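Session log. Operator J.P. requested a structure for one protein chain; no other inputs attached. Running the standard single-chain path with token output.
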Amino acid sequence: MRKIAQALALIGLTAAFGAHAQVVKIDGSSTVFPIIEGVAEDFQKAKKGAMKVTVGISGTGGGFKKFCRGETDISNASRPISKKEMDDCKAAGVEYYELPVAFDALTVVINPKNPFIKQLTVAELKTIYGPDSQGKVTRWNQVNPTFPDAPIKLFGAGADSGTFDYFTEAINGKSKASRGDFTASEDDNVLVQGVSSDINAIGYFGYAYYAENTSKLKAVPIVNPKGQAVAPSEASVLAGTYEPLSRPVFVYVNAKSLAKPEVKEFVDYLMKNAAKIAKEVKYVPLPAKAYTLALEHVAKGKKGTVFGGKNEVGLTIDELLAREAQL
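Structure written below.
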């Protein structure tokens, strides 16, 4: 399995490629990063240095800001493009293709030495992270009276992160509605270090970062709408039981960039290899027809988004495929 730390280091190695290499510029979600970096690594090897791929981690929101200014070819996103981002792209004349690449189980994590959290409900998570809890809910027994009188140490995704947008909508009922008194970062490795170093800590991020750090972290089963406490896993995502924190992740491709051979070749390579790499880095691959459909959209010039600028919580893989087929 690819190690995320190694993957980050490999980005620096792209500088060693030839000065005249054709460059594909990608930025955006740290959640989607492990998949795209893995594909980029293999693609660059296959092209023997003739093409170079750079992958940044500015967060979904930060990535879209660059994308809608025409500064990048591809934007990684752990949520669909928002209405404001759609408007920004339109104003700048940036048209795009929306290509789902995998499903993620957004994972709530605690320190492995935590003795009292066996599962959490959405209501308890809202008590922990809700905007009304800022400065008020500071100890675990305020979340659940069976929990100890111990301080809560909060970690979470930064405001430019699609993970932050999705989590706040799924748990607090509104995107970006959150308490602000917690340690936030677009770099999930910062959150891993924070939670792993404090027995009273809790945080959340994409499943891949948990999977890379199972010796340092414990994933919390979440009680779904049917009352079942379900842990994040490929099986629970495929079964549609890991609700409401299962979600699709995407890349957005600048339509004009596709005229460049390096971008067109990378997108083709990505859609043909995303399933393999997604599984390798512990995401849930989409069915083969999803990647075929994405390439058909590109071939037929079917641009835009099927989400209308809105995030949607609780979407299953089958529902996503049905939606994409309508484009």
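Operator note: The two ends are 35 Å apart (CA to CA).
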